[in-house]
Amino acid sequence: MLNNSDSANQQKDAKLSIHQVLHWLQEDNLISAGDYEKCLHYGSISKSQNKHPLNVLIECGVTDQTQFGKPFTLEELTRWLAKKIDLPYYYIDPLKIDVAAVTLIYSHAYASNYKILPIRVSKEEVVIATAEPFVRSWEIDLAKIQSGQIKRVFANPDEITRYLGEFYAFAKSLKGATDNSTSKTGSNIYNFEQLIELGKASDLDANNQHIVNLVNWLLQYAFDLRASDIHIEPRRKQGHVRFRIDGILHNVYQLPAAIMGAVMSRLKILGRMNIIEKRLPQDGRIKTQSAQKKEIELRLSTMPTAFG
C-alpha cells in the first residue's frame, strides 16, 4: 500500500484552476462574458478553501448558453471536461467496485491528497479515477508496486470524495472487526455472539464499534442505492451481502464467516430478535434514520441455513 511518505520522487504537478476551466468554457462558447467575470471573481474568493474548479462553477451558478441559460449540473460539467482534456469519462458505480481490492493499493490519506480513487485492479491493468488530470506524480509511485498498465479516467469530483470516505471507512471497520474476532475469539463465532449479547467484556465493547460501523454503512449504502431488499447470506468461509435493485440481485460484498456472524447478530439485536436462536425463522423490525435524517423502517426475516 502506498502512503504519503512514498512520494519522494514527484514530477511537476499542476492542479486545475478556475481561470483555466473558464477559459475552456468560453473557448467552446458555452458561457457568457458575464458568467466568466462573475465566476472568476467568485473563484478568487474561494481559492483559499481548496475547492475543485467544477464545484466553484456550480456554486457560482454558471449557465449553459447553448441551452438558453440553463444552469449546468456538476455531472454535465464533468462529462464536458473529460472530453476537453481527452480522458475517458467514468461514472462510479459502487456495485462494480471490489472495495477490498482497491483500498489495498493506497492509504486513505494518500488517495485523498491526490484526489484519486482506484476503480479496478487486475494483473494486467489498474484503473484510477481522478478529478485532477494534470496531477500525475502518483503514477510514478504506483508503477513501483504494480506491473500492469495504469489507466486514468476522469470522474465527478464529489463522487470521488464521497466514495473515498465510504470505501475506506468500510475497509477500516472490516479490518478492525476481523482483527478483533481473530484475536479475541478465533474461529468460534458463537463465543463472539454470546459476548456481544451479554456485553460483559469492556474491551470488546470498544472493538464492537467496528461491527456497528459495518452495519450502519450497509444500511446507509442500501438506502443510497434504493435497494428494496438486503440479503445477508452466511457461508462456510465467506458470507455474501446482496442488494436487490430494480428487481435484480447484486453482489455487494463478501465478509469472512466470523464477521458475517457478528453482523447478523447486530441486526438481530436491532430487530429485537433472539440472537442465539438459529434453528427457527424469526421476524423483526428496525427503525433508523438516513444520513439525510429521513426515517427508515426495515422488516427483518431470518431463515435457518447450514451455516447460521
Describe the fold and architecture.
This protein is α+β, with helices and mostly antiparallel strands and 308 residues long. It has 3 domains: 68 residues, no CATH class; 73 residues, 2-Layer Sandwich (GMP Synthetase, Chain A, domain 3); 113 residues, Beta-Lactamase (2-Layer Sandwich), CATH 3.30.450.90. It has a 3-stranded mixed β-sheet. Helix 1 packs antiparallel against helix 2 and helix 11 crosses helix 12. The protein is elongated and about 70 Å long. The chain starts with 17 loop residues before the first helix and ends in a 6-residue tail after the last strand. About 8% of the residues have low confidence.
CATH level-3 fold name of the largest domain: Beta-Lactamase
In helices, the fraction of residues equals 40-55%
- At CATH level 2, the architecture of the largest domain is 2-Layer Sandwich
Rg (CA only): 23 Å
Summary of the model, kept short:
By secondary structure, the protein is an alpha+beta fold. It has helices at residues 18-27, 33-46, 53-60, 74-84, 99-102, 108-114, 138-145, 157-185, 189-198, 202-207, 209-224, 257-270, and strands at residues 63-64, 70-71, 116-121, 125-130, 149-154, 229-233, 238-245, 248-256, 282-289, 295-302. Helix 1 (18-27) packs antiparallel against helix 2 and helix 9 runs parallel beside helix 12 (257-270).
